[in-house]
Design goal:
Strand content: 5-15%
Number of helices: 21
Helix content: 40-55%
CATH superfamily of the largest domain: NAD(P)-binding Rossmann-like Domain
Number of domains: 2
Shape: globular
Number of strands: 11
């Protein structure tokens, strides 16, 4: 059955359809970046809220600025912006039709600015990917030299970036006497609210100090921690929706049954009562964020590269390999988890065990190449800060050095059996060249200071890294992991 408003009552039995009148919804949020994660996460939380009968003035208008955003718009429009969400619970799959998005702005900067300037829009949220915030790789601050930013700064009346469009909409509201909306990043990166603020304020400064100061004083950028494993939609996922549930959806989403959202409660223009459907509102997101970055994201990095060198394709298959899980368990308990500060009412051990359960879910079909992807961006976020924290405390880093050496060995471009590893990083050619140098001289890998910073100056880390990489080349990944686990 083709998904649409008209066909909701004809969908196969067992499919959960919206229990609220979608025609009674009105928008309160513009969301830029209508990808799978947004539809599995933020959109589902709002859908659940609407099911309780409240806050129907907080529906979503989708938006985007990239060509692929237009492709998504074209897929969703014939089905009235509805999305089938299939939760891949090993105990039994379930499907719900999510109806919290009621429109999708044309991919046109002028129309998007006009939409965001409407007084009923009180939140503009973003999932524009970790790399979409124009962060300078060397300083960690805003990259004002990027060509996109320079172009927007010189043409404020015709912005092309998300942040130029946000500034234009804020200025339109200011001119009309309408209070500014809250900018809410939903991307998976540390201090995402601060990063979003840096991008908006940084671009504004290129135009006017007064404009930048006004934004800093008047616009809220709450930080948030988001989590829900959401694979890309391909033939496998479309087949699950069509064959198991009998729904013809041009852009379904499959995801794990787990989702988490921790938000800083900083919404001057108001917000939906998402705490009633499981969102945690706190004064400081940082401890939750650090727990996720180190245990979950660091855990993904820990299993990714040994599994990649073993030629394993699926994450759940990696979790059946005793060398992979033994490495994960020892590294987490001895070096990663001790760096995570305690959070009242939260057990880091329980959180870790839940991560292991999630990684082991065979229904998700998450892949090792996805976990290995973009290590040059992910390692500095998920692994290297933990190394720095342990070195600062005078603690050992043998396991973390081995994880870093496994990444280096993976970037050489072959598995332990000699199979070619396809390019899997925007900087793949550079990484491969550096990994080839490091085979004979391990310290060459650590000379990438834009990734490793000054870690190459710490003898304890350099020595541990060199020993690990040498062992990987001389003995292979299996023997090296077995030796580490047995110590």
């Amino acid at each position: 059955m083709k998904l649409s408003n008209a066909n909701l009552d004809q969908l196969p039995p067992g499919t959960k359809v919206p229990g609220y009148d979608r025609t009674a919804l009105s928008p309160g949020i513009v969301h830029i970046g209508v990808g799978n994660f947004h539809r599995a996460h933020q959109a589902v939380y709002l859908h659940r809220l609407f099911e309780t009968g409240r806050d129907h003035d907080w529906a979503i208008i989708g938006a985007g600025v990239k060509p692929y955003d237009e492709a998504m718009r074209q897929r969703l429009q014939p089905q009235d912006w509805l999305t089938t969400i299939v939760e891949l619970d090993p105990a039994g799959f379930s499907a719900r039709i999510c109806g919290s998005m009621i429109d999708f702005c044309a991919i046109d900067a002028g129309q998007l600015i006009e939409t965001m300037a409407r007084p009923e829009i009180r939140i503009v949220s973003l999932t524009v990917t970790e790399g979409g915030y124009y962060v300078d790789a060397k300083t960690g601050g805003f990259d004002a030299s990027h060509l996109d930013i320079i172009a927007d700064a010189g043409n404020p009346g015709s912005p092309a970036t998300v942040f130029g469009i946000i500034i234009a909409a804020l200025m339109a509201r200011r001119a009309a006497g309408i209070a500014p909306f809250t900018v809410m990043s939903c991307d998976n990166l540390p201090e995402n609210g601060h990063v979003a603020r840096n991008a908006v304020v940084g671009l504004a400064k290129l135009r006017s100090d007064d404009l930048a100061q006004w934004i800093e004083a008047n616009v809220a950028f709450p930080c948030g921690m988001v989590d829900c494993i959401t694979p890309a939609t391909g033939p496998r996922e479309i087949g699950i929706v069509a064959e198991k549930f009998g729904i013809d959806d041009a852009a379904p989403v499959v995801c794990e049954p787990f989702r988490q959202w921790v938000l800083e409660d900083n919404f001057p223009m108001g917000r939906p009562a998402l705490e009633t459907v499981g969102v945690q509102f706190v004064s400081n997101v940082a401890p939750y964020e650090l727990m996720k970055l180190r245990i979950l994201n660091g855990g993904h990095a820990t299993i990714a590269y040994p599994a990649g060198l073993f030629g394993i394709n699926y994450v759940h298959d990696a979790m059946t390999n005793p060398l992979v899980t033994g490495f994960l368990d020892k590294l987490q308990h001895e070096e990663i988890m001790p760096t995570v500060p305690s959070i009242e009412g939260v057990s880091t051990e329980s959180y870790y065990r839940k991560c292991v359960e999630r990684f082991s879910n065979p229904a998700i079909g998450d892949t090792i190449p996805r976990l290995c992807f973009d290590g040059s961006n992910r390692q500095p976020k998920f692994i290297l800060p933990t190394i720095e924290a342990r070195l600062a405390g005078g603690q050992t880093v043998d396991g973390l050095a081995l994880e870093s050496a496994l990444w280096c060995r993976y970037c050489y471009g072959t598995t332990d059996s000699g199979e070619v590893i396809l390019p899997n990083d925007p900087n793949w050619d550079r990484l491969t060249a550096r990994a080839r140098l490091a085979r004979q001289t391990p310290q060459e890998w650590l000379k990438m200071t834009d990734i490793y910073g000054n870690l190459g100056n710490y003898a304890e880390f350099v020595d541990a890294f060199a020993a690990a990489l040498t062992a990987l080349w001389h003995n292979g990944a299996e023997a090296t992991l077995a030796a580490y686990i047995g110590d």
